[in-house]
Design brief:
The chain contains 3 helices and 11 strands, in the order αβββββββββββαα. The strands form 2 sheets. Strands 2, 4, 6, 7, 9, 10 and 11 form a 7-stranded mixed beta sheet that branches. Strands 1-3-8-5 form a 4-stranded antiparallel beta sheet.
Length: 223
Amino acid sequence: MNRLFRKIAVLAAPTAAALMLSAAAASAHVTVAPSQSVTGAWETYTLKVPSEKDAATVQIDLRIPAGAEFKQYEVVPGWDVKIDGNKISWVSTAAGIQAGQFQRFYFTAKNPDTKGDIAWDAYQHYADGSLVQWSGEEGTETPHSVTEIVEAAAGGGSHSGMAMDDHGSMNMGGQDSMSMDEHNAIMEEQDKASGTSPMIYIALGISLLSFLLAVIALLRKRA
């Protein structure tokens, strides 16, 4: 029986490794949230940048999609912001984003006036000189984030409820202030909105199925 358990453990090791790698890949993407907003809104977007290498992330370049218009950014200690046309760059002036860490950058952009998908291409620079281009289509290893722009309802605000009005002041959807619980709920929604590629789930399913078939074959052989 012990030999059987050892064989199953040997078979399970590659599957477990595949599951961990898939989970790591799913959480290591550079993302822009929310994944849905409305036409013409001044939306507060969140750029989330994780470091997946041993070297620190020292710069992130974001391309504002065609039809959208960059408006404002939130100051982040340890980072300078450079604006060059439709390219917004956050450049580290300190240690950058270390391995196992992530950083959120907040900015406001005016959405296109017509509905449709807009893609956020991002370029992640590491201290060792390497560059990861998050500009691929969904299902690739380095996909860009996509925001669906839908028609604004009459009298409606932005999707996140944190849009800026035409004078640049914060619109909290009729509220004078936001509680910490409400802020955390929005952050959780944005993390979920970044989504996971269906290819991840397909890969996990194949790995689990292969493991189960191997165990069944082993048990039949012993019988």
